Amino acid sequence: MKNNILIYDDDAEILLLCKAILFKYNYKVETLSRCENILSDIEKYNPGLILMDLWIPDIGGEKAIALAKENKNVKIPILIFSANADIKDISEKVNADGYLEKPFTINSFMETIKHHLI
Amino acid sequence: MNELSKKTYTFLFSVLIAVLIIAAFISYNKVKQFDESVKWVMKSEEVKNNISEVLSTLKDAETGQRGYLLSNDSLFLQPYIGAEEKINHLLSGLNTMVADDSIQHTNFLTFKKIVAERLFLLEKNISILSTQQTNAVKDSLLLKGTNKMDEARKLVAFMLREEGKTLQLRLQTKNQSAAITPLYLLGFSLLSILALALLFSRLRKETHLRLITQQINTINENASKRIQISENNLRNTILKAPVAMCIFKEPNHILQLANERMCEFFGQPLETLINKPIVEIMPEARSLGLEKLLDGVYKTGETYSAKEINITFLRNGKNQNFYVNLAYEAYRESDGIITGIIVVLTDVTEQVVARKRIEDSEQRIRLAVESGRLGTFEIDIVSNEIVFSERLAEIFGVAYSKETSHLDLKEALHPDDVAARDEAHDISLQSGILFYEARVVWKDGSVHWIRINGRVINDNNIATKLYGTVLDITEEKEAANKLAAIREQLELTLRMVPAAIQLRNSKGELLFVNDEAARITGFSSAEEMMKEKDPDYVYKKVISTVEIYDEEGNSFDVKSAPTAITFSTGQPAEATFRTVNKHTGESNWIMSKSSALLDDNGKVSMVISTNTDITQQKKGEQELKRFKHMADNANEPFILMRQDATFAYINDVALERWGYTREEVKHLRVPDVDPIYNDEVFSKAFAMAQQEKIPQFETLHKKKDGTIYPVEVNMSGLLLEGKPHLFAITIDITERKKTEEAQKESQKKIRSFIVQAPVAMCLYRGPDHIIEIVNKELLAIWDKPYEAVIGKPVFEVLPEAKNQGLDKLLQKVFTTGEKFTAFGIPIILTKDGKPQKIYVNLVYEAYRETDESISGVVEVVANVTEQVEAGEKIKASEQRFAAAVAAVQGILWTNNAKGEIEGEQPAWAALTGQSYDEYQGYGWAKPVHPDDAQPTIEAWNVAVKERKIFDFEHRLKMSNGQWGHFSIRAIPLLNTDGSIREWVWVHTNITQKRIAEETLKESEEKFRGLAETLPHLVWITNEKGEAVYASSRWKEYSGFNPYEVGNWPAIIHPEDMEPMTNAWLGSLESGNLYHAEARLRNKGGEYRWHVVEGVPLRNEAGKISKWIGAFTDINEQKLKEQKKDEFISIASHEMKTPLTTAKGYLELLLLTIGEENPTPLLYAQKASNSIERLHDLVAELLDASKIQNGKLNYNISTFDFNEMLDETIENIQRGSSSHIITKHGKSLHTIKADKNRLQQVIINLLTNAIKYSPNANSVLVEVVEKENVLQVSVKDYGIGMNKEHLDKIFDRYYRVQEHAVHFQGLGIGLYISYDIIKRHEGIMWAESEPGTGSTFYFTIPIYLD
After folding, report:
1. Is B822 touching A (CB cutoff 8 A)?
2. Which residues in chain A have Cβ-Cβ distances shorter than 8 Å to B1146?
3. β-pairing verdict for A98-101 and A78-82
4. Is any Cβ of chain A less than 8 angstroms from the Cβ of B644?
5. What domain count does chain A have?
6. Are B1338 and B1310 in contact (CB under 8 A)?
7. Averaged pLDDT, B700-722
8. Selected residue of A29, A91, A106 to mutate for chain B interface (largest B Cβ count, 10 A)
9. Which residues lie closer than 8 Å to B817 by C-beta, 6 or more apart?
10. pLDDT tier, B877 (very low <50, low <70, confident <90, very high otherwise)
11. Has residue B492 been placed in a domain?
């Protein structure tokens, strides 16, 4: 099982919080605030799980996921990571592997990550 | 003489005496024997005479009856009267005479029976004649009588032969006796030498013989005398007959006897005619076929008779036309052999000609009457039967046929007018005059006014007939009704506009106010508000009822309202403000607009102000339908389609039926499997299914291998995951179709045969003889309408036929298949409630299926009953048309072919006041209005030239000096050569109608003027939805004329077109209020939101006559709402991001602090709780906003309700130490719902219960399962609330005012809960008592499949 996680979000505070929690539980974290280079990012970091914000520059989370899923070499699970109330529907629509709703409790955050990590 | 000789002499003498005595004795015996044999001979003669006389009497009686039947003259009945008594007397004598002869006695008994039967037939025939019968019936009766007579004749001939034989024997015996007796006497006389004895005996014999001869002669004389009498009777009958009669004898018809009338008819005296054959007397007889007819009668003995035959023959060197009734009757000798023909002839020429003349005049009067566009009728008051004209049927809107009864006409009347009609009829029986006006309702629902005029005809002071006319006066009446409708229209328009409307005059006094305006202002109704004239009072009332705020929330002064501004400036004004009712706390947003109507000086004459309540919310989307459970267990193909015609789901049955694999189906679309449902049809059906229920229909499906088969489809639309879908269940109906086709074909053949047959026919089906097919001819005989008999057992329809044994006959044919045929049988059928006897030829024949089984019976009937006598009809016709002319509306007058009046025209004189001299010639044109004179003449010249009906309107100066409007109709009556004989004119006064039309026009203009001043876009359509009026604001707003349908797409926003059109079509069909929202494009190209509402206006019959409606601009509030929702959506998302970090760090903080630092831990915990609540509030706000836009999504799944409830209670319990939550009862089934949303509802109810019962310590949850519904209640023992709040607590942002201070929150939780439960097809409500607590309930439906 890998233990490195790639998080895309344009809010620095969120990224910092996630890092704090995940470090506490001994995970490695890479954070990015733009998503258009997702394919090269994956190649570069080879993460075990990706959290993707929905409203993120430059192309938006939805398109970024589509880009990743089109590439058959990418087997990494990607979770939608958003404050949008319709997150569940959106995750199905964009073919994501799951979702993480904001706000979250540390407990649920960690459970979800453990569940999807490869 | 010696002793010896004396002795010898004595001896001899003694011997002689003895011999003499012996001889005398023997002679006496022989003579006695002879005398008896003579008596026997006499008796036989008497028997023969007696029989002949019976026959002769019978024949006389028959001849008499025949004469009576043919001529209908009772003089002929003389020989018949008393014949029976005489015959009975003769027969009783005959009975004693033949008592000792066993053979003759048997014959006698048969003879007596035949004679009795014949007498019975005579009596029956004569009695039947008195009831009118057809010639065919008469002929059949006569034939029966003739046959019986032939039988009698044959028997008599036989009896006479028998008696002749007996007589022969008796004469022989008599002759023997006569021969032997004298020999004896002579022998003994010789022996006794006493010649005297011989002389004596001879003398005796002589005497006897003379007596006998005398008696025999008397007998023979009597017989021939009787024959002579019989011949003379016939002769006398013919000579004295009141009709022309004659006898032809021998095969070539030689005239033997003719009475004077017959000679007159032949045109020659009897002397020149007698003993000449028919062809010499009347050379035309051969060409007219009369000779052939005579030949036939002579040969067959069958009577021939005919009525009203038209004969033309030479009379006084001229061809003359005659109509005669004719009868040929065989003349028979006593032995039954035909030796001649009796001819009876009645000249009915005058009668026929008279009738034809009346028919002609009838035609002429009918023309005149109908020229006034009048319907005519004639009622038999006794039987209540009616005869009426085609025009009357047209006016009444009923079928012009004999089946249409008086009752049908009465039923056509408007129910409210029947009482008036009955009263008018009652009065007419007293006064003799019928007059009333009423409405008739046609089958299409339209209402027409009629005016009835009639006259009652009395016969011996008893009202017998009612003749009358009917005029359609709808136009006249409608004009008056329209006037009232216009007023109603205006008021309705103003009431209906979804706004408060007030109309004020220049002083500010109210002219009109609708209920909505009254309500907003604080009055209970428009009527109450209208009572108050003082504008200040209304103002005070308003400010005492409501607090008013402007859009910024500042207090708003009513005196600066648009109405006030318009009053002072004369300019339109508008403003938006919020009102809060001081008593109820009810809050409304109002959009107020006003505009003024200026007078010629530019001053305000009237102000219209409208206040529109714009708080109303758009109704939520349609409820989500359930789908899955239907698919699971379907036995039939089950298909779910998407809007793009692809398949979202197909069950296994459907796959198997079509022959596709599940994979293949993914690439298929509806048009691939249904050749009828191409893209266009499918998208239409799809759209329709989303709006309404689609009825079951049939279509074709195509399998993978190309086979096409018919299916029956049940289809409906549903929403799945927020998207419209269409689901269908299809059933293969191939077999059913095939069977139906085969049955239809066979049925069609027999049906068309029966329906087209020129004779009365029908088909009875099954053992109950259900009438399956019946044609018009048979319905006419039955006197029943088609609807009353079809599909019913025949003997239920005609119970009287069953009593006559027809059921047994029909049943026999149905069971055995043997054909039954009968001719001329009498049947009694009920006609107009009375039994009526008709004669029919009847055939029943079994109807067999293709497998030869009998499934029904075909009946063929020919009615052989004749029509009613012509004479009575003529009389009725004369009376009818005299009455009709008297009842004609308007003025009837005539002038000649050139248009000149010749002679007296009283009706014209009364109308115009012109004197006789003034109107002669072309004088009648003078009273015509000068402006109309020239057009009248021009139109009249055209009519004269073309010889056509002249229809025109012009003004006439009437006798009272005033001008009247008249409609004119003149009809040319033509001579046989086509030239005009005369003109029949009808002048009908239409002045009233004209005035009404003018008034109507004015009133309509007034209405439009008012509608034009309204700021709304007012419209009116007809009942079909076609525009008939649009206020000029339309053009002002859009720059287009909305009358033209083509302009609509340019005005309505493309996205709103379809829902709006659907709503409109839906209202047109249902007649319900029309409501829709749409964006309308204005002149500047800007789309603005409008709400449209329309109401149907109904006529007296309850039928929609038009729709009135208006569009109201709601753009501003619509846009504001949209912006607000958008703002909330973005704001809540943006708020969540800092919430996430705050929450995360707080949690990390909590983990870091640890139990050992209780105070920091408590602070961190409190901060965390606040963050949690802030998050809940943000979520609620977003939910509420989504409900507004109908965008709240639902995730339906099947789950265990108990588990969810327990879990939720546990969570809430954990957060509350102050209250103990107790649960009773449980759900017995799993439920289908959105689990998270339901949980949200329960959390909301529980937190409310705890929040609003700060002084209590328990909350009670109860779960009950009732009929297919799960009911959950949450009870608290808290502060409770008043009734007035109960209804509003489910509104958005509503919070009980007095609680606001103590309790926090936005108060939208209940609003969201309420909506969630509603979307689950459940109900939510509350019960509460201030101070004791509240109970909140909700229900969720349970689907047990």
Report:
1. no
2. none
3. parallel
4. no
5. 1
6. no
7. 82
8. A106
9. B846, B848, B854
10. low
11. no
Confidence band for B860, pLDDT divided at 50, 70 and 90: confident
Per-residue tokens: B703: 């399998």
> Looking at the DSSP assignment, which residues form a beta bridge with residue B714?
B729
Residue of B nearest to A109 (CA): B1144
Asked if the Cβ–Cβ distance from B1182 to A17 is below 8 Å, we say: no
Among B1129, B1130, B1146, B1147, pick the best mutation site for testing chain A contact (most A Cβ within 10 A): B1147
Is residue B1014 within 8 A of residue B989, CB to CB? The reply is no
Could you list the residue range(s) of the whole structural domain that residue B327 is in?
Answer: 243-347
- State whether B654 and B519 are in the same domain: no
Does B1139 sit within 8 Å of A103, measured CB to CB?
Answer: yes
Closest residue, chain B, to A18 (C-alpha): B1144
B180, B47: one domain: yes
Last residue of a domain, one of B847, B863, B879: B863
Asked if residue B494 belongs to a domain, the reply is no
Query: Where does the pLDDT of residue B1338 fall: very low under 50, low under 70, confident under 90, or very high at 90 and above?
Result: very high
How many residues in total does chain B contain?
A: 1345
The mean pLDDT of B105-111, rounded to a whole number, is 81
Say if the Cβ atoms of A83 and B1137 lie within 8 Å: yes
- Peptide bond preceding B1254 in cis form (omega within 30 of 0): no
**Residue B1063 clears pLDDT 80, i.e. is over it:** yes
Confidence class for position B867, pLDDT limits 50, 70, 90:
very low
For testing the chain B interface, which of A17, A33, A100, A108 should be mutated: the one with the most B CBs within 10 Å?
A17
Residue B774 pLDDT more than 70?
yes
Lowest-confidence segment of A3-7, B238-242, B556-560, B1085-1089 by average pLDDT: B238-242
Which residue in the set A16, A88, A102 is minimally distant from B1137, CB to CB? A102
Do residues B1051 and B1138 share a domain? Answer: no
pLDDT of residue B617: 35
- Do B188 and B88 belong to one domain? yes
Interface check B1144 vs A, CB under 8 A: yes
Collapse the DSSP code of B470 into the 3-class scheme (helix H, G, I; strand E, B; otherwise coil) and give the result: strand
Query: Which residue did the predictor score with more confidence, B694 or B79?
Result: B694
Residues B1341, B1199 within the same domain: yes
The pLDDT score that the predictor gives to residue B1274 is 95
Question: Within B625-733, where are the H helices?
Answer: 628-632, 652-658, 662-665, 670-673, 679-691
Total domain count for chain B? Answer: 10
> Of all residues in chain A, what percent carry a pLDDT higher than 90?
40
Chain B residue numbers with beta carbons less than 8 Å from the beta carbon of A24 are 1148
Q: Are residues B74 and B207 in the same domain?
A: yes
Residues B945 and B916 in one domain: yes
Calpha distance B1328→B187 (Å, rounded): 158
Shared domain for B585 and B558, answered yes or no, is yes
Sorted by sequence, the CB contacts under 8 Å of residue B757 that are 6+ apart come out as B775, B777, B860
Q: What is the CATH number of the domain that holds B358?
A: 3.30.450.20
Q: What is the pLDDT of residues B1191-1224, one digit of tens each?
A: 677 778 899 999 999 999 998 898 888 899 999 9
Residues of B in contact with A13 (CB under 8 A): 1137-1138, 1141
Q: List pLDDT tens digits, range A59-101.
A: 888 889 988 888 877 789 999 998 887 788 888 888 899 999 8
Instruction: Assign 3-state DSSP to chain B and report helix, strand, coil percentages, each to 5.
Output: 50, 25, 25
What's the mean pLDDT in B926-930? 89
CA–CA gap between residue A62 and residue A56 (Å, rounded): 9
Residue A79 maps to which CATH number?
A: 3.40.50.2300
Contact B454, B433 (CB under 8 A): yes
Asked whether the beta carbons of residue A20 and residue B1148 sit closer than 8 angstroms, the reply is yes
Report if residue B160 sits inside a domain.
yes
Range(s) of the domain holding residue A90: 4-116
- Using a CB–CB cutoff of 8 Å, tell me whether B1147 touches chain A: yes
Within a domain: residue B996? no
